[in-house]
Task: structure prediction
Amino acid sequence: MPRQAVLILDFGGQYNQLIARRVRECNVYCEVKPYTMSLADIRAFDPMGIIFTGGPNSVYDEKAPHVDPAVFDLGVPVLGICYGCQLMAQALGGSVTAAQDDSAREYGKTETWYDTNCRLFRDLPECGISWMSHGDYMEKVPEGFSLAAHSRACPNVAIADEKRGFYGVQFHPEVNHTEHGVDMIRNFLYHVCGARGEWTMEDYKHTAIAAIREKVGSGRVLLALSGGVDSSVCAALLAEAVGRQLTCVFVDHGLMRKNEGDEVEAAFRPWDINFVRVDAEDRFLTKLSGVTEPERKRKIIGEEFIRVFEAEAKKIGAVDFLAQGTIYPDVIESGAGDAAVIKSHHNVGGLPDYVDFKEIIEPLRLLFKDEVRQLGRELGLPEYLVSRQPFPGPGLAIRIIGEITKEKADLLREADAIYRQEIAAAGEDRNISQYFAVLTNTRSVGVMGDGRTYDYTLALRAVTTSDFMTADWAQIPYDVLDRISTRIVNEVQGINRIVYDITSKPPATIEWE
Result:
């Protein structure tokens, strides 16, 4: 862990991981931990600052989550956001109650006025839009706190005890809807906590390499190499750390994109690593036969990955560690603590109970996708690998709705290849964060030539995002969509209808399953 770090205590709010993303954008390292973290562990973490997140509860409820009040005696600055603000107020002698009328409840974009003498709002405009989401009200502010922001409905939108470095805001500075929200977080980090901005990918690279060497020692490591950004960066990091102690196993499960297996093998041929390609298409398709439920698909694929690795490890000899390219969004979406499980990732929630390795190591586990790409560049990976389209570990299995067959996989491979070709030809690949095709389980009537068809509907998905925690659907030009649709229905027999997904995340996820 870097010398300077911020601790984010998670109370279950929907924007909590965005807080971590914003802190890191300010070049300050942070980690998200459950609110149940003990005082001893908080002391051991030695944070330069603590942030309490939002949450769905009311602080006055009997079963509402709380922290040890002694956290306020550590001499560490604290920023409370929404629920975290009210929690701080209640813990330090204030009073929080349900708003008595609708005018005191605030949701959405709200005009807000700030006291720019407060360090939290230093050098910011005196008025701006903040994103509110609260139905409770601080009817009494704790002793020692002053009012630092207000709206038309609420006199205590923000409170501050400048002497102790305690700040609370009832809005969400981490979301893009709050004007200058990141500047507020930066002010807390730099003007209150004394941050020096030491968190960089170069720093992380050196720290991670040292940690891997210490953990692995003289042991041998087996890496699940998919050829995607995450596993490629993981491979480069491990190669830098332990060299020939690393064996990379590429499992070709028959659910890759068109020609991708050959491309992955060719890309890693020049590397000084042990590279093994395993043809396991029949094995995976047999296991997935008749399975339609997406979580079962993920669990089956996760377990088969592990079993293939175990078998390869036995061929190679003694292998001590299994390495995986798990990244932070994978961990978050698979659920942790009180968080809801959005979906299990094959390399997180999909792991079986028994794994025949000494330990699993995940050196990218605390990084967001764009941070992984930055790390890849620091490690000297070629841009075509670093900028590679994200591709889930289960591959096309979660882009085929319903039962998986080789016929369906081949159909989707051809259609997806056309989609990617046309997006690149139009130059739209520079504007889109992720794009792919989904073979739905819906068939519909069509007319081709003089004949009637009854074929599959293909869905196209494209999103723009900075962190893959939230995403907007990409507004691909109509003429590009027209070329894609025309080519697919003419060149891919078995598909007669194309639809475009215009749903953002949330409420949808980026992948369909």
User: Anything to note?
Assistant: Confidence is low (pLDDT under 50) at residues 335-354. The CA atoms of residues 218 and 245 lie 8 Å apart. The first strand starts at residue 5 and ends at 10.
